[in-house]
Amino acid sequence: MYILGIACYFHDASATLIKDGEIVAAAMEERFSRKKHDNSFPKQAIEFCLRQGGISGKDLDYVVFYEKPLVKFERILLTTLNTFPQSSGVWQDSMISWLKDKLWIKTLIQKEVGVSYDKVLFCDHHMSHAASAFFCSPFREAAVLTTDGVG
């Protein structure tokens, strides 16, 4: 089973290809774009991972995005509405990026990676942090605490 993980638009953009639970390739977009902390869609990192795996997008079983965009969008809406009018600048900046790119990530992944719509999945952002710490640890059980942003 091939799974491609993608992160972009919020933090440093990256992609990781996993085959049967083992990492085949991982790369940050900045390595290819030469733009430090590049947070754009990681097209080149994805191409690198697929090339390293000797596969194409249609060979993927799933593509997983590290965030649930609608959950984050709701949090931004509620936060800015609760602090209005002080948050009007944040509101304007947020809406431009959300309505331009972030809300449409599933369609973009489908188009750029070449997978069907039903193969694109989302996971909880803070659970992603916890999993990245736990699954590479030697432990069978652990308590994990995430404390980034509003985690």
Write down the oligomeric state: single chain
Uncertain segments are none
Overall number of structural domains: 1
Q: How many H/I helical runs? A: 6
Q: Describe the main β-sheet briefly.
A: 5 strands, mixed
In the CATH hierarchy, what is the class?
Alpha Beta
Structural class: alpha/beta
CATH architecture: 2-Layer Sandwich
Biggest sheet: strands side by side, in what order?
A: 3-2-1-4-5
For the terminal residues, how far apart are their CA atoms? 31 Å
How much of the sequence lies in strands comes to 15-25%
**Any idea what the radius of gyration is?**
17 Å
Please name the CATH topology.
Nucleotidyltransferase, domain 5
The CATH superfamily bears the name ATPase, nucleotide binding domain
Order of helices and strands: EEEHHEHHHEH
Which properties best describe this structure?
151 residues, alpha/beta, Nucleotidyltransferase, domain 5, 41% helix, globular
Polypeptide structure, described:
This protein has 151 residues and is an alpha/beta fold. The chain has one domain: ATPase, nucleotide binding domain (Nucleotidyltransferase, domain 5, 2-Layer Sandwich), CATH 3.30.420. Helices cover 41% and strands 17% of the residues. The protein contains 6 helices and 5 strands; from the N terminus they run βββααβαααβα. It has a 5-stranded mixed sheet with strand order 3-2-1-4-5. Strand 2 and strand 3 (22-28) form a beta hairpin.
